[in-house]
Specification:
It is a single chain. The chain is 78% helix and 4% strand. With 166 residues, the protein is mainly α.
């Protein structure tokens, strides 16, 4: 009986160690992606402001500004694209995206009269950031493609390298 009790206590200790290690793995993963975690919180705030703006716009009888029914869905789509980019590019880019989400949220919160416009401009800026990050990532993954100053694309070949040297 005493041996069973010691084995049971050892099993509880092992379980506690496994639980703590699992929590540490999760904590380290979240710390490594801190910009994405904070961007998620800011995007949630933008989503809430979108919903509030849509409700307020539907209650007002103003025909000059269309009601932003799809604005919250657009926020989710842009955040999903941003999360993919933030996980695939090196560190300064996710931090800049976090800054863009935070500024969009703060300005939209502080200026309620221009909330719809600010939210829209923030989403457009984030969409451009996603596009630019995707383009940079594509250029890094394809070193054989030459980007000429006039915008033309070409492949780097031995003939092309010889022409460039001449």
């Amino acid at each position: 009986m005493e041996e069973f009790a010691q084995e049971l206590l050892q099993a509880f200790r092992d379980f506690a160690v496994y639980e703590i290690n699992g929590l540490l793995v999760i904590a380290y993963a979240l710390i490594a992606q801190w910009a994405l975690v904070l961007s998620t919180l800011c995007a949630a705030g933008v989503f809430v402001l979108d919903r509030v703006s849509a409700e307020r716009a539907s209650l007002t009888a103003s025909r000059s500004v269309p009601a932003p029914e799809r604005s919250a869905r657009l926020t989710l789509i842009i955040f999903a694209l941003w999360a993919i980019v933030a996980l695939s590019v090196p560190m300064p880019v996710p931090a800049l995206g976090l800054l863009m989400w935070a500024v969009t949220l703060a300005v939209a919160w502080l200026i309620p009269s221009a909330r719809l416009r600010v939210l829209w401009q923030g989403k457009v800026a984030l969409t451009h950031a996603v596009q630019c990050s995707r383009d940079v990532r594509a250029r890094q993954s394809r070193p054989d493609v030459v980007h000429a100053p006039d915008g033309r694309l070409g492949r780097r070949t031995m003939v092309g390298v010889a022409r460039q040297r001449a």
